[in-house]
Fold this protein.
Amino acid sequence: MFELAALFVVLGMVVVGFVLVGLLFKVVFKLVLLPLVLMGAVIKMVFVAVAVVVGLMLAVVLGPVLLLLGAIFLVPALLVGGLAWAGIHTLTA
């Protein structure tokens, strides 16, 4: 009877030992990988900053160009569409 209790105590101690070793590995790996995680976050922040700057530059440079191209190409199309609409409206009225 005491042998069985002693066996369970030993098995419990083995399980606790495995848990402690696993916890130790977990803590060590987290401490080892922490600089890599922080470096990844820094790189991500740099990419976001560069993307914001590039996006603003494109908006400033391409905005007026696209506005001018739209005025050149879309105004005649709008005029033709308006004339077509007016003609259809006149014929069906």
Notes: The helical segments are 2-92. The radius of gyration is 36 Å.
